[in-house]
Amino acid sequence: MYEDDDAVVIGPDRKYPWKVHGMFGASATSYGSVGENYIISTGYGSKMAGGSWINTGEGGVVEEHLRTGANVIAQIGPGLFGYRDEDGNFSIEEFVKKSKEPNIKAFELKFGQGAKIRGGHLEGKKVTQKIAAVRKVKQGKTINSPNRFPFLQNATDTLHFIHNLQKLGGKPVGIKLVIGQQKPLEELLQTMKDLDIYPDFITVDGSEGGSGATYKSMADSMGIPLIPALITLVDTACYFGIRDKFKIFASGKLVTPDKVAIALEPV
User: Fold this and answer.
1) Residue 3 pLDDT greater than 90, yes or no
2) Could you tell me which SUPFAM superfamilies the record lists for this protein (predicted)?
3) CATH label of the domain that carries residue 158
């Protein structure tokens, strides 16, 4: 675990920057797809390890995420689960409320996921009363999260939205994506440079992720593997001269020390 002087600072310009004292944490897993026992065990494990973190996934923040004392990245997906009003629109009030939770250290907007390119999916039989309350949806009804944020039409919209969240919550705000073609990535980074607006971190998800809640052809064939994706992001950011503007997280079956070490090298 890093000493305080060596900690990696996420969002140094935010009111509440996050000092990360470790090298790895638990990837995003939504409540509903996983249960309370999983969340509690990973939370306590992360807390015991020190310098680590857990990620809520797009299913929203539940009490089990917070009570373990672990550092939490709260993910916001296109379905806005946990961050929506009764009409399904983004709720500033819900976001600000969660930003006041001391254990929530950062927020992550999920634009892509290696396991589920098409967007999230939860069968109605799994949508319990608690899940419905957390996500602000109807109990027993199948949930399909769209594959994009309907109110963000382009990179400019996206970056202004990120900037607003950074100001509203005072905490770091990052994005999660899967890299496929080079051109959209170049357009995004160019727009960052033009507007001088940057996410505090970018999480790169490789195509290795697995899930039973998507089409096999999509899971197997869309997106590029993690290591080439990392190299692509780093090289493209260096090309535009903005590599120092954000930190990089990586996810995609990094479950052994050698895999973590390999992923750290390009970054």
Assistant:
1) no
2) FMN-linked oxidoreductases (SSF51395)
3) 3.20.20.70
